[in-house]
Amino acid sequence: MTKSSPIRFHVITLFQEACAAYLNTSILGRAQKEKHIRVSYHNPRNFVTNRWGKVDERPYGGGPGMVMTALPVVQAVRKALARRPMAKTVIIWFTPGGKAFTNAEADKLATYDDLVLVAGRYEGIDERAVKMLRTIAPVKKYSTGPYVLTGGELPAMTIIDVLTRRLPGVLGTDASVEERRVAAHEMYTRPETIAWKGKQYRVPKVLRTGHHAHIDAWRVKKR
Question: What CATH number labels 7-174?
Fold first, then answer.
């Protein structure tokens, strides 16, 4: 896969600092500096019209917690895409009931120019925002796992991480992308033997043989 221009990630979040610390570090930080990707942040709080700067209200139908209001989120997305009217764009909405995010889904998302990742908070975002956002660009609903998180920032960073490491040049060589080669869930490095509390912990013998067919078979078995 090759792309002539960087993928642009637009993160809609109340807490930019929660994302920037991770995305500006190590491989992802270098990917930004080398212009493989671009990451921008847009805060729904900048688009509220009330005097208190509130972005949430009590849920209709009762229940605990607060719900983020729809319009500030929609306005933040519009702002993010204001200069990209002709780009191939997708809006990503996180929900526990969404489609499971997988490597196959990552390959599909990597074909887009602009990805808007909507990171909700509290009890979620007013669902009417989805209907309004679909007038701007296609919306895909994803879940990154069978659990509930405090906010959508972690799933947003997960998608950015998974997509970025697949781009040519980000990891240095395509062979570094584990899902494109035979890789095991168990990894070993030097020293060959570690002494710990009276026991010897050794690297599996097959990994020390240099026999690549046997090593690949072992890796497949361990996957």
Answer: 3.40.1280.10
Q: For the segment 76-105, what is each residue's pLDDT rounded down to a tens digit?
A: 999 999 977 667 999 999 998 999 999 999
Residue spans of the domains in the chain: they are 7-174, 182-222
Vertex 67: Cα angle to 61 and 68 (nearest 5): 145
Sheet containing 89-100: order of strands = 37-42, 7-12, 114-118, 89-100, 139-143
Q: Is the dihedral of CA 148, 73, 127, 62 positive or negative?
A: positive
pTM attached to this predicted model: 0.86
pLDDT in tens, 195-215: 999 999 999 999 999 999 999
Q: What is 159-218 written as a DSSP string?
A: HHHHHHTTSTTTSSSGGG-GGGS---S----S-SEEEETTEEEE--GGGGS--HHHHHHH
Q: What is the pLDDT of residue 201?
A: 95
Q: CA 73: distance to chain centroid?
A: 19
